[in-house]
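I'll show a sample.
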Amino acid sequence: MANTQIAAAREGTVTEEMERVAKRENRDPEFVREQVAEGQAVIPANTNHDALDAMIIGRDFSTKVNANIGNSETTSDLETELEKLHSAVHYGADTVMDLGTGSDLDEIRETHLEHSPVPIGTVPLYEAVKQADSPAEITTDLLLEIIEKQAEQGVDYMTIHAGILAEHLPLTDGRKTGIVSRGGSIMASWMEENGEQNPLFQVYDEICEIFAEHDVTFSLGDSLRPGCLADACDEAQYAELDTLGELTRRAWEHDVQVMVEGPGHVPMHKVAENVERQQEVCDGAPFYVLGPLVTDIAPGYDHITSAIGAAMAAQAGAAMLCYVTPKEHLGLPDEEDVRDGLAAYRIAAHAGDVGAERPGARDWDDALSEARYAFDWREQFRLALDPDRARDSHDQTLPGDNYKEARFCSMCGVEFCSMRIDQDAREGDGDGMERLTEETNLENSPAAEVNLPPVGTHEGADIPGSEHDQAPAEPASDD
């Protein structure tokens, strides 16, 4: 009997998870099965994660967004972590990575999995560092023990930094920012201290066996991703990518699902090149990118610098985007930073889907534009990516209910509102300008669920701490 989604797909079976994904994506279940069978898409769905509502990640499906959360030695407890989870789901995260490095990791992880309707990802190397006396003391037995434990707990996908090899390390010597991946720096330090090959690479087949037993999806870590524009697309980054392609094919031989992580900091003119190269080297396995940030000059605004690159990557074929918050490179995000980061990335993902001409993706835009032209303020708010933010912005200057019927906002006022002027001209007796009456019916749209309002489709999930007030989250760049 097939234990994994890819094994079932290769046998010709359409699983319950594939049926659910097909409904959410407005696609034929057989197409979903074919994509999973060929490794072009993954359904992260650990057999032990009972609360999961299955989703899919692949370039031929709607672009997904991940949010990183997690505690540290100095911040957060179980209740706060649950608030983080709720906030992430509420603001539209399709998956959540728990990058915790503090106390009570098992209790927090198990509680997340008990309640989370979205896939949960982890980086088991972090727990190994906590248990060892030092990074250099990590053993392959410890790594396998932790990976197996997390798989049994129900973790849906794990970042495994198996692609950074000893021979890659000298290639980083000329960089401006060295190795910026937390996991990559740990593995590099381990190899330098022990004079041996990457232990995750050495036991990769054993990891595949554990993943196959519980249907854990690989998220192959990009340990040598660039941490600045100057380091983008260098020999070190692409040498590791070649290894990730080999590891992808080895995992497929074990009937294990794979996605591949990507950069990082990349100038705009090289974003598409990165996506295209990964797709070629990794035989079309889904690409999961952090950003990429297209400039290094904007600390405090890196949710914007990265969302620009994320939209370009999504249009080029990246399957999932890892959000970045305004606190990137600076500190621990609070709940408002998480909100802003997820808004930026939901915009990037949707813009990428529109740019890639996904079926029905633009229908949401058209419906909101029609409401805007009709001065239907309440419908604009309802259709907005963040309805509360849209309503609050409008009401700061025109707060009364009577202004919800007004044919102007405070930007132009009554006299200079172009849409009012245009409407009046069309309603008059003039020639050549017909009245605009076209309406978009979102109920009949072929768009995938994530390209239709409202954001946060798991709002009814049974996640304690649903007040989600001031919940910090871990920075996105450290996986």
User: Anything to note?
Assistant: The chain has two domains: 5-356, 361-445. The radius of gyration is 23 Å. Residues 110 and 153 are 6 Å apart (CA to CA). The first helix runs from residue 5 to 10.
